[in-house]
Amino acid sequence: MIVANFVNGESVAAEETSPLVDPATGEEFGRAVVSRAAEVDAAVQAALDAFGTWSRTTPGERQRALLKLADLVEARAPEIADAEVRETGKIRPVVLEEEIPQCVDQIRFFAGAARALGTAAAGEYLPGHTSYQRREPVGVIAQITPWNYPLMMAVWKIAPALAAGNTVVLKPAETTPSSSVLLASLASSVLPPGVFNVVLGDRDTGRLLVEHPVPAMVSLTGSTRAGVEVARSAAATVKRTHLELGGNAPVVVFDDVDVDAAAAGIVGAAFYNAGQDCTAATRVLVHSAVHDEFVAALVQAASACVPGVDFGPVHSQAQLDRVLGLLARSSGIVHCGGKRHGSAGFFLEPTVITGLDQSSELVQEEAFAPVVTVQSFGSDDEAVALANGVPQGLASSIWTRSAGRAAALTARLDFGIVWVNTHGLVASEMPHGGFGASGYGKDLSLHGLEDYTRVKHVMIAH
Q: pTM of the predicted model, to two decimals?
Protein backbone atom coordinates (compact mmCIF):
# COMPACT_ATOMS: atom_id res chain seq x y z
CA MET A 1 0.00 0.00 0.00
CA ILE A 2 1.39 3.40 -1.04
CA VAL A 3 -0.51 6.60 -0.32
CA ALA A 4 0.10 9.18 -3.06
CA ASN A 5 -0.38 12.91 -3.52
CA PHE A 6 -3.69 14.19 -4.85
CA VAL A 7 -3.11 17.09 -7.24
CA ASN A 8 -5.31 18.69 -9.88
CA GLY A 9 -8.01 16.08 -9.35
CA GLU A 10 -5.71 13.07 -9.74
CA SER A 11 -3.59 10.72 -7.67
CA VAL A 12 0.09 11.52 -8.29
CA ALA A 13 3.03 9.32 -7.29
CA ALA A 14 6.54 10.37 -6.27
CA GLU A 15 9.83 8.51 -6.17
CA GLU A 16 10.57 8.85 -2.45
CA THR A 17 8.42 7.20 0.24
CA SER A 18 8.31 6.90 4.03
CA PRO A 19 6.81 4.22 6.28
CA LEU A 20 3.34 4.27 7.79
CA VAL A 21 3.10 2.68 11.24
CA ASP A 22 0.02 1.56 13.17
CA PRO A 23 0.47 3.06 16.68
CA ALA A 24 -1.70 0.34 18.19
CA THR A 25 0.70 -2.41 17.06
CA GLY A 26 3.94 -0.58 16.31
CA GLU A 27 4.08 -2.34 12.95
CA GLU A 28 4.56 -0.87 9.49
CA PHE A 29 1.55 -1.42 7.22
CA GLY A 30 2.29 0.75 4.21
CA ARG A 31 4.15 3.74 2.83
CA ALA A 32 3.39 7.29 1.76
CA VAL A 33 5.11 9.39 -0.86
CA VAL A 34 7.46 12.17 0.19
CA SER A 35 7.14 15.27 -1.98
CA ARG A 36 10.06 17.45 -2.93
CA ALA A 37 10.33 20.68 -4.91
CA ALA A 38 8.89 19.35 -8.18
CA GLU A 39 5.82 17.87 -6.51
CA VAL A 40 5.22 20.97 -4.38
CA ASP A 41 5.59 23.22 -7.44
CA ALA A 42 3.05 21.13 -9.36
CA ALA A 43 0.50 21.30 -6.55
CA VAL A 44 0.92 25.04 -6.08
CA GLN A 45 0.65 25.65 -9.82
CA ALA A 46 -2.54 23.59 -9.96
CA ALA A 47 -4.02 25.69 -7.14
CA LEU A 48 -2.93 28.91 -8.84
CA ASP A 49 -4.43 27.86 -12.17
CA ALA A 50 -7.72 27.01 -10.46
CA PHE A 51 -7.90 30.20 -8.38
CA GLY A 52 -8.99 32.50 -11.17
CA THR A 53 -12.16 30.52 -11.82
CA TRP A 54 -12.97 29.35 -8.28
CA SER A 55 -12.51 32.80 -6.76
CA ARG A 56 -15.16 34.17 -9.12
CA THR A 57 -17.81 31.60 -8.23
CA THR A 58 -20.74 32.88 -6.24
CA PRO A 59 -21.16 32.07 -2.54
CA GLY A 60 -24.19 30.00 -3.50
CA GLU A 61 -22.14 27.89 -5.90
CA ARG A 62 -19.49 27.30 -3.26
CA GLN A 63 -22.19 26.44 -0.75
CA ARG A 64 -23.67 23.78 -3.00
CA ALA A 65 -20.27 22.20 -3.60
CA LEU A 66 -19.43 22.05 0.11
CA LEU A 67 -22.84 20.62 1.00
CA LYS A 68 -22.24 17.84 -1.53
CA LEU A 69 -18.82 17.22 0.00
CA ALA A 70 -20.38 16.96 3.47
CA ASP A 71 -22.85 14.39 2.15
CA LEU A 72 -20.01 12.37 0.64
CA VAL A 73 -18.02 12.40 3.88
CA GLU A 74 -21.11 11.27 5.76
CA ALA A 75 -21.81 8.47 3.28
CA ARG A 76 -18.19 7.25 3.26
CA ALA A 77 -17.71 7.52 7.03
CA PRO A 78 -16.75 3.84 7.59
CA GLU A 79 -14.01 4.02 4.94
CA ILE A 80 -12.69 7.30 6.33
CA ALA A 81 -12.75 5.86 9.86
CA ASP A 82 -10.71 2.87 8.74
CA ALA A 83 -8.02 5.17 7.35
CA GLU A 84 -8.03 7.36 10.44
CA VAL A 85 -7.89 4.47 12.92
CA ARG A 86 -5.12 2.64 11.06
CA GLU A 87 -2.77 5.63 11.22
CA THR A 88 -3.69 7.07 14.63
CA GLY A 89 -4.73 4.09 16.74
CA LYS A 90 -7.94 5.89 17.73
CA ILE A 91 -10.94 4.00 19.07
CA ARG A 92 -13.07 3.33 15.98
CA PRO A 93 -16.53 4.00 17.49
CA VAL A 94 -15.27 7.37 18.73
CA VAL A 95 -14.15 8.31 15.22
CA LEU A 96 -17.41 7.13 13.68
CA GLU A 97 -19.83 8.47 16.27
CA GLU A 98 -18.11 11.67 17.38
CA GLU A 99 -15.34 12.95 15.12
CA ILE A 100 -16.71 12.35 11.63
CA PRO A 101 -20.18 13.74 12.48
CA GLN A 102 -18.45 16.87 13.78
CA CYS A 103 -16.51 17.15 10.52
CA VAL A 104 -19.71 16.84 8.50
CA ASP A 105 -21.38 19.53 10.61
CA GLN A 106 -18.39 21.85 10.23
CA ILE A 107 -18.35 21.53 6.45
CA ARG A 108 -22.08 22.26 6.37
CA PHE A 109 -21.61 25.26 8.65
CA PHE A 110 -19.02 26.83 6.37
CA ALA A 111 -21.16 26.04 3.35
CA GLY A 112 -23.84 28.27 4.82
CA ALA A 113 -21.38 30.81 6.21
CA ALA A 114 -20.08 31.44 2.68
CA ARG A 115 -23.34 33.32 2.10
CA ALA A 116 -23.36 35.19 5.42
CA LEU A 117 -20.22 37.34 5.42
CA GLY A 118 -21.12 40.84 6.56
CA THR A 119 -19.40 44.21 6.52
CA ALA A 120 -20.14 47.89 7.05
CA ALA A 121 -22.99 49.33 5.01
CA ALA A 122 -22.17 51.20 1.83
CA GLY A 123 -22.62 54.92 2.27
CA GLU A 124 -21.36 58.46 1.80
CA TYR A 125 -18.74 58.76 4.52
CA LEU A 126 -17.20 61.73 2.70
CA PRO A 127 -19.36 64.27 0.87
CA GLY A 128 -19.70 63.45 -2.82
CA HIS A 129 -18.19 60.00 -2.44
CA THR A 130 -19.76 56.58 -1.95
CA SER A 131 -17.72 53.94 -0.16
CA TYR A 132 -18.23 50.23 0.22
CA GLN A 133 -16.14 47.23 1.24
CA ARG A 134 -15.40 44.01 -0.59
CA ARG A 135 -14.46 40.78 1.11
CA GLU A 136 -12.30 38.79 -1.28
CA PRO A 137 -10.46 35.47 -1.16
CA VAL A 138 -6.78 35.75 -0.26
CA GLY A 139 -5.44 33.46 -2.99
CA VAL A 140 -3.62 30.13 -2.84
CA ILE A 141 -3.50 28.92 0.77
CA ALA A 142 -0.75 26.61 2.08
CA GLN A 143 -2.11 24.51 4.94
CA ILE A 144 -0.27 22.14 7.29
CA THR A 145 -2.10 19.78 9.64
CA PRO A 146 -0.98 17.61 12.61
CA TRP A 147 -1.25 13.91 13.34
CA ASN A 148 -3.62 14.00 16.32
CA TYR A 149 -6.82 14.81 14.36
CA PRO A 150 -5.88 14.32 10.69
CA LEU A 151 -9.37 14.52 9.20
CA MET A 152 -10.83 17.12 11.54
CA MET A 153 -7.91 19.51 11.25
CA ALA A 154 -8.04 19.19 7.46
CA VAL A 155 -11.75 20.06 7.56
CA TRP A 156 -11.15 23.02 9.90
CA LYS A 157 -8.74 24.41 7.32
CA ILE A 158 -10.13 23.56 3.93
CA ALA A 159 -13.81 24.27 4.63
CA PRO A 160 -13.47 28.00 5.45
CA ALA A 161 -10.71 28.53 2.88
CA LEU A 162 -12.78 27.02 0.06
CA ALA A 163 -15.99 28.69 1.25
CA ALA A 164 -14.25 32.06 0.95
CA GLY A 165 -13.16 31.33 -2.64
CA ASN A 166 -9.52 30.38 -2.06
CA THR A 167 -7.72 27.35 -3.45
CA VAL A 168 -5.69 25.06 -1.21
CA VAL A 169 -2.52 23.00 -1.05
CA LEU A 170 -2.71 20.91 2.12
CA LYS A 171 0.21 18.99 3.64
CA PRO A 172 -0.90 16.53 6.32
CA ALA A 173 1.49 15.07 8.87
CA GLU A 174 3.74 12.53 7.18
CA THR A 175 2.50 9.72 9.45
CA THR A 176 -1.25 10.34 8.94
CA PRO A 177 -1.91 11.21 5.28
CA SER A 178 -4.67 8.82 4.24
CA SER A 179 -7.84 10.56 5.46
CA SER A 180 -6.73 13.86 3.94
CA VAL A 181 -6.06 12.20 0.58
CA LEU A 182 -9.42 10.46 0.77
CA LEU A 183 -11.09 13.80 1.58
CA ALA A 184 -9.46 15.39 -1.48
CA SER A 185 -10.50 12.44 -3.63
CA LEU A 186 -14.12 12.84 -2.52
CA ALA A 187 -13.91 16.59 -3.10
CA SER A 188 -12.70 16.07 -6.66
CA SER A 189 -16.18 14.93 -7.65
CA VAL A 190 -17.74 18.24 -6.54
CA LEU A 191 -14.90 20.76 -6.98
CA PRO A 192 -13.02 21.81 -10.14
CA PRO A 193 -9.52 20.29 -10.56
CA GLY A 194 -6.82 22.14 -8.63
CA VAL A 195 -9.11 23.74 -6.06
CA PHE A 196 -8.09 21.30 -3.29
CA ASN A 197 -4.69 19.58 -3.55
CA VAL A 198 -2.81 17.38 -1.07
CA VAL A 199 0.96 16.95 -1.05
CA LEU A 200 2.52 14.42 1.31
CA GLY A 201 5.91 14.57 2.94
CA ASP A 202 8.08 15.50 5.87
CA ARG A 203 9.21 18.75 7.49
CA ASP A 204 11.30 19.63 4.46
CA THR A 205 8.18 19.30 2.31
CA GLY A 206 6.41 21.67 4.65
CA ARG A 207 9.26 24.17 4.42
CA LEU A 208 9.14 24.04 0.63
CA LEU A 209 5.43 24.79 0.73
CA VAL A 210 5.75 27.63 3.25
CA GLU A 211 8.67 29.23 1.41
CA HIS A 212 7.09 28.89 -2.03
CA PRO A 213 6.51 32.36 -3.54
CA VAL A 214 2.94 31.69 -4.74
CA PRO A 215 0.85 31.00 -1.61
CA ALA A 216 -0.50 34.21 -0.10
CA MET A 217 -1.20 32.67 3.31
CA VAL A 218 0.02 29.81 5.48
CA SER A 219 -2.25 28.10 8.00
CA LEU A 220 -0.65 25.70 10.48
CA THR A 221 -1.94 23.60 13.32
CA GLY A 222 1.01 22.20 15.23
CA SER A 223 3.52 22.79 17.99
CA THR A 224 4.70 26.20 19.14
CA ARG A 225 8.14 25.34 17.76
CA ALA A 226 6.66 24.65 14.34
CA GLY A 227 4.63 27.85 14.52
CA VAL A 228 7.69 29.96 15.19
CA GLU A 229 9.50 28.36 12.27
CA VAL A 230 6.54 28.89 9.92
CA ALA A 231 6.08 32.52 10.99
CA ARG A 232 9.77 33.21 10.44
CA SER A 233 9.77 31.58 7.00
CA ALA A 234 6.51 33.22 5.91
CA ALA A 235 7.83 36.64 6.91
CA ALA A 236 10.45 36.51 4.15
CA THR A 237 7.70 36.85 1.52
CA VAL A 238 5.23 38.73 3.76
CA LYS A 239 2.71 35.88 3.75
CA ARG A 240 -0.22 36.01 6.10
CA THR A 241 -0.08 33.34 8.80
CA HIS A 242 -2.79 31.59 10.79
CA LEU A 243 -1.32 29.60 13.68
CA GLU A 244 -3.15 27.23 16.03
CA LEU A 245 -0.36 25.96 18.27
CA GLY A 246 0.18 24.07 21.48
CA GLY A 247 -2.00 24.20 24.57
CA ASN A 248 -1.52 23.43 28.23
CA ALA A 249 -5.00 23.83 29.63
CA PRO A 250 -5.61 24.64 33.30
CA VAL A 251 -8.69 23.22 35.02
CA VAL A 252 -9.62 25.34 38.06
CA VAL A 253 -11.68 23.36 40.58
CA PHE A 254 -13.29 25.14 43.54
CA ASP A 255 -14.43 23.68 46.84
CA ASP A 256 -18.16 23.90 46.04
CA VAL A 257 -18.20 21.28 43.26
CA ASP A 258 -19.61 17.79 43.26
CA VAL A 259 -16.22 16.14 43.62
CA ASP A 260 -17.00 12.81 41.95
CA ALA A 261 -18.88 14.34 39.02
CA ALA A 262 -16.19 16.95 38.39
CA ALA A 263 -13.42 14.36 38.60
CA ALA A 264 -15.19 12.12 36.09
CA GLY A 265 -15.75 15.01 33.68
CA ILE A 266 -12.15 16.16 33.92
CA VAL A 267 -10.73 12.67 33.37
CA GLY A 268 -12.84 12.35 30.23
CA ALA A 269 -11.48 15.68 28.96
CA ALA A 270 -7.92 14.80 29.95
CA PHE A 271 -7.65 11.36 28.37
CA TYR A 272 -9.77 11.79 25.24
CA ASN A 273 -7.59 10.81 22.26
CA ALA A 274 -4.93 9.68 24.77
CA GLY A 275 -4.52 13.29 25.88
CA GLN A 276 -3.22 14.19 22.42
CA ASP A 277 -5.40 17.25 22.16
CA CYS A 278 -4.22 20.84 22.43
CA THR A 279 -7.22 21.57 24.65
CA ALA A 280 -6.80 18.51 26.89
CA ALA A 281 -7.44 19.09 30.61
CA THR A 282 -3.83 18.67 31.62
CA ARG A 283 -3.21 20.98 34.62
CA VAL A 284 -5.75 20.47 37.38
CA LEU A 285 -5.74 23.26 39.97
CA VAL A 286 -7.77 22.33 43.06
CA HIS A 287 -8.84 24.40 46.05
CA SER A 288 -6.88 23.31 49.12
CA ALA A 289 -10.08 22.58 51.07
CA VAL A 290 -10.94 19.66 48.77
CA HIS A 291 -7.49 18.83 47.38
CA ASP A 292 -7.01 15.41 48.94
CA GLU A 293 -10.60 14.33 48.35
CA PHE A 294 -10.44 15.46 44.75
CA VAL A 295 -7.12 13.74 44.07
CA ALA A 296 -8.59 10.49 45.39
CA ALA A 297 -11.62 10.85 43.10
CA LEU A 298 -9.42 11.77 40.15
CA VAL A 299 -7.17 8.76 40.69
CA GLN A 300 -10.17 6.46 40.99
CA ALA A 301 -11.66 7.76 37.74
CA ALA A 302 -8.32 7.67 35.92
CA SER A 303 -7.48 4.16 37.10
CA ALA A 304 -10.77 2.91 35.68
CA CYS A 305 -9.70 3.96 32.16
CA VAL A 306 -8.28 1.11 30.09
CA PRO A 307 -5.75 1.88 27.34
CA GLY A 308 -6.92 0.38 24.07
CA VAL A 309 -10.54 0.47 25.23
CA ASP A 310 -11.19 3.96 26.54
CA PHE A 311 -8.42 5.68 24.60
CA GLY A 312 -5.79 4.72 22.06
CA PRO A 313 -2.00 4.79 22.05
CA VAL A 314 0.24 7.82 21.87
CA HIS A 315 1.23 8.41 18.30
CA SER A 316 4.71 6.99 17.96
CA GLN A 317 7.68 5.45 19.69
CA ALA A 318 9.31 8.87 19.73
CA GLN A 319 6.26 10.39 21.44
CA LEU A 320 6.14 7.55 23.97
CA ASP A 321 9.84 7.97 24.75
CA ARG A 322 9.42 11.73 25.12
CA VAL A 323 6.57 11.38 27.64
CA LEU A 324 8.33 8.63 29.60
CA GLY A 325 11.34 10.96 29.77
CA LEU A 326 9.19 13.77 31.17
CA LEU A 327 7.82 11.39 33.79
CA ALA A 328 11.26 10.02 34.69
CA ARG A 329 12.62 13.53 35.27
CA SER A 330 9.66 14.58 37.38
CA SER A 331 9.99 14.89 41.16
CA GLY A 332 6.23 14.64 41.67
CA ILE A 333 4.22 11.90 43.34
CA VAL A 334 2.74 9.44 40.84
CA HIS A 335 -0.63 8.29 42.17
CA CYS A 336 -1.45 6.05 39.24
CA GLY A 337 0.08 5.16 35.89
CA GLY A 338 3.43 6.57 34.86
CA LYS A 339 4.44 3.55 32.79
CA ARG A 340 4.04 1.99 29.40
CA HIS A 341 0.99 -0.23 29.05
CA GLY A 342 1.62 -3.61 27.46
CA SER A 343 4.38 -4.51 25.04
CA ALA A 344 2.67 -3.97 21.67
CA GLY A 345 2.00 -0.52 20.33
CA PHE A 346 2.61 2.79 22.05
CA PHE A 347 0.17 2.72 24.94
CA LEU A 348 0.68 4.67 28.16
CA GLU A 349 -1.11 4.12 31.45
CA PRO A 350 -3.47 6.91 32.59
CA THR A 351 -1.33 9.00 34.92
CA VAL A 352 -2.06 11.42 37.78
CA ILE A 353 0.81 13.33 39.44
CA THR A 354 0.83 15.70 42.43
CA GLY A 355 3.57 17.55 44.33
CA LEU A 356 4.81 19.69 41.44
CA ASP A 357 5.60 23.40 41.65
CA GLN A 358 4.84 25.92 38.92
CA SER A 359 8.33 25.76 37.43
CA SER A 360 8.22 21.98 36.95
CA GLU A 361 8.79 20.74 33.41
CA LEU A 362 5.54 18.77 33.49
CA VAL A 363 3.62 21.91 34.41
CA GLN A 364 5.28 24.24 31.91
CA GLU A 365 5.49 21.84 28.96
CA GLU A 366 2.50 20.26 27.23
CA ALA A 367 2.74 16.49 27.75
CA PHE A 368 0.34 15.62 24.91
CA ALA A 369 -0.38 12.29 26.56
CA PRO A 370 -2.77 10.75 29.13
CA VAL A 371 -1.02 12.62 31.95
CA VAL A 372 -2.63 14.98 34.48
CA THR A 373 -0.83 17.13 37.04
CA VAL A 374 -2.58 18.42 40.17
CA GLN A 375 -1.67 21.58 42.08
CA SER A 376 -3.34 23.21 45.07
CA PHE A 377 -4.48 26.82 45.52
CA GLY A 378 -6.00 28.76 48.39
CA SER A 379 -7.54 31.87 46.81
CA ASP A 380 -9.01 33.08 43.53
CA ASP A 381 -5.93 35.23 42.93
CA GLU A 382 -3.61 32.26 43.42
CA ALA A 383 -5.73 30.11 41.10
CA VAL A 384 -5.53 32.75 38.37
CA ALA A 385 -1.77 33.16 38.83
CA LEU A 386 -1.20 29.39 38.53
CA ALA A 387 -3.54 29.06 35.56
CA ASN A 388 -1.95 31.95 33.65
CA GLY A 389 1.59 31.03 34.66
CA VAL A 390 2.53 29.17 31.46
CA PRO A 391 3.41 30.45 27.96
CA GLN A 392 0.42 28.81 26.27
CA GLY A 393 -3.03 30.39 26.17
CA LEU A 394 -5.41 28.17 24.21
CA ALA A 395 -8.02 26.69 26.55
CA SER A 396 -9.08 26.54 30.19
CA SER A 397 -12.02 25.60 32.38
CA ILE A 398 -13.58 26.64 35.68
CA TRP A 399 -15.51 24.22 37.87
CA THR A 400 -17.77 25.89 40.44
CA ARG A 401 -21.43 26.30 41.43
CA SER A 402 -20.97 30.05 41.84
CA ALA A 403 -22.13 31.92 38.76
CA GLY A 404 -20.58 35.14 40.07
CA ARG A 405 -17.18 33.57 40.57
CA ALA A 406 -17.29 31.96 37.14
CA ALA A 407 -18.20 35.27 35.49
CA ALA A 408 -15.38 37.10 37.28
CA LEU A 409 -12.74 34.50 36.47
CA THR A 410 -13.60 34.13 32.77
CA ALA A 411 -12.39 37.73 32.36
CA ARG A 412 -9.13 37.03 34.20
CA LEU A 413 -8.05 33.79 32.55
CA ASP A 414 -5.72 34.55 29.63
CA PHE A 415 -6.98 31.86 27.27
CA GLY A 416 -8.89 31.95 24.00
CA ILE A 417 -11.44 29.44 25.31
CA VAL A 418 -12.91 29.27 28.81
CA TRP A 419 -15.37 26.49 29.64
CA VAL A 420 -17.44 26.48 32.83
CA ASN A 421 -18.33 23.11 34.40
CA THR A 422 -17.35 21.33 31.20
CA HIS A 423 -14.21 21.02 29.11
CA GLY A 424 -13.24 20.24 25.53
CA LEU A 425 -16.50 20.72 23.64
CA VAL A 426 -16.57 22.69 20.38
CA ALA A 427 -19.39 24.23 18.36
CA SER A 428 -19.10 25.06 14.68
CA GLU A 429 -20.58 28.51 15.36
CA MET A 430 -18.04 29.45 18.05
CA PRO A 431 -14.37 30.47 17.50
CA HIS A 432 -11.48 28.21 18.45
CA GLY A 433 -8.04 29.76 18.91
CA GLY A 434 -5.60 30.95 21.53
CA PHE A 435 -3.26 33.64 22.78
CA GLY A 436 0.46 33.83 23.51
CA ALA A 437 2.47 30.76 22.55
CA SER A 438 -0.75 29.09 21.40
CA GLY A 439 -0.77 31.28 18.30
CA TYR A 440 -3.29 33.56 16.66
CA GLY A 441 -6.21 33.39 14.25
CA LYS A 442 -9.47 31.53 14.75
CA ASP A 443 -10.78 28.21 13.50
CA LEU A 444 -14.52 27.53 13.20
CA SER A 445 -17.20 30.27 13.34
CA LEU A 446 -17.54 33.29 11.08
CA HIS A 447 -14.22 34.50 12.50
CA GLY A 448 -12.59 31.44 10.95
CA LEU A 449 -14.11 32.26 7.58
CA GLU A 450 -13.08 35.92 7.80
CA ASP A 451 -9.48 34.88 8.44
CA TYR A 452 -9.39 33.50 4.89
CA THR A 453 -10.54 36.77 3.33
CA ARG A 454 -9.04 40.16 2.61
CA VAL A 455 -10.92 43.46 2.85
CA LYS A 456 -10.87 46.07 0.09
CA HIS A 457 -12.24 49.62 0.35
CA VAL A 458 -13.83 50.97 -2.81
CA MET A 459 -14.60 54.72 -3.04
CA ILE A 460 -16.51 56.27 -5.95
CA ALA A 461 -16.69 60.02 -6.57
CA HIS A 462 -19.96 61.42 -7.90
A: 0.97
